[in-house]
Amino acid sequence: MEAIRQGQAAGQTTQWLHLELERREMLVLADARGQTLECRSGELWLTEAGGGDTVLRPGEAHVVAGNGCLVVSACQDARFVLGGGGHDPATVSLQPVRGFLASLLPHELSGLGGRGLA
Q: How many domains does the chain fold into?
């Protein structure tokens, strides 16, 4: 995961955090309720607590709801922005997922069924 920059366009008050994920990289967002995640390139698989899964392609956006917890997975190298939620996106917790789980895409995780992840 790479944070490219955070900033404001001239005359705007909304801040956006610009991020990149390589294929199969995963990122967990916490405290992101109300934030908008917009895909700029690539393809993102979003899994939201209580909200199911969504796939975003360039130009598509998703507003984080529920408790503000969201898993973002890159189906292919992707660039996206996060912001517009009424609070600074820099306050959102961003945690990269590493290890075995990071090697799986979310739809592959669902195939584990009741076997658990231990």
A: 1
